[in-house]
């Protein structure tokens, strides 16, 4: 009787161990599958959406530098609503850490940059539109002025110290954007490699 009882106990223990092992293996493979999904989602979002948008924005800053030296503006710029961190924020840090390890700090850095750029006043299009508005307001305000030393609005646009300073400030802001976009692109490359 005791041999039969010992045998049943042994079989129960073996079955429990096998069940626990199978359960752990299933959990492991499910976790690996989830980590693969997270990596694929984050990498695709960064490489297929954010990185190309960053490159386009950098090209726009170069176009703005050229365009602000022209009196007539014909530049068409994008607003880029996709430039936000909502996809990255949909994953908790404790979900990202097993997938990316120490690169999580770069992902957090990317989220910070994207949150900064999400606001309209932190986009090149806003700076350019503000430049056009300030330039037009300044020139229109001085057109009727009898003491305006410039013969016409074109000369005023080219030679006025205020306009020269305004163009310089816009160029400085475009340089700041370039630094931000380069930093963003570098962080993305670190994460996806």
In short:
This protein has 7 helices and no strands.
Main attributes of the structure:
193 residues; 79% helix; rod-shaped
Structure description:
There is one protein chain. This protein is rod-shaped. The protein has one domain. 19% of the residues are buried. The protein contains seven helices and no strands. The model has no long low-confidence stretch (mean pLDDT 89). The protein starts with a helix and ends with a helix. With 193 residues, the chain is an all-alpha fold. α1 packs across α3 and α4 packs antiparallel against α7. The longest helix is centred in the N-terminal third of the chain and has 66 residues, at 2-67.
Outline the fold blueprint.
Blueprint lengths: L1 H66 L18 H4 L3 H8 L3 H15 L5 H20 L9 H7 L1 H32 L1
Q: What is the mean predicted local confidence, pLDDT?
A: 89
Tally of strands: 0
Question: Could you spell the SSE succession in H and E letters?
Answer: HHHHHHH
Unreliable sequence segments: none
For the sheet with most strands, the description reads: none
Helix/strand-derived category reads mainly alpha
Number of domains: 1
Instruction: Report the end-to-end length measured between terminal Cα atoms.
Output: 64 Å
Radius of gyration: 29 Å
Shape descriptor reads rod-shaped
Helix content: over 70%
The amount of beta strand, in percent, is under 5%
């Amino acid at each position: 009787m005791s041999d039969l009882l010992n045998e049943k106990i042994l079989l129960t223990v073996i079955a429990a161990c096998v069940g626990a092992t199978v359960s752990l293996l299933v959990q492991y493979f499910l976790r690996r599958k989830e980590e693969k999904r997270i990596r694929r989602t984050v990498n695709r979002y960064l490489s297929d959406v954010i990185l190309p948008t960053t490159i386009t924005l950098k090209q726009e800053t170069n176009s703005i530098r050229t365009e602000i030296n022209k009196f007539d503006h014909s530049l068409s710029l994008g607003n880029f609503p996709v430039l936000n961190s909502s996809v990255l924020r949909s994953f908790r840090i404790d979900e990202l850490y097993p997938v990316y390890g120490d690169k999580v700090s770069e992902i957090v850095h990317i989220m910070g940059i994207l949150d900064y750029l999400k606001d309209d006043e932190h986009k090149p299009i806003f700076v350019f539109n503000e430049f056009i508005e300030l330039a037009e307001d300044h020139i229109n305000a001085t057109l009727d002025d009898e003491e305006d030393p410039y013969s016409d609005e074109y000369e005023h646009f080219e030679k006025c110290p205020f306009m020269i300073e305004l163009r310089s400030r816009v160029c400085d802001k475009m340089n700041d954007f370039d630094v931000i976009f380069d930093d963003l692109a570098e962080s993305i490359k670190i994460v996806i490699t």
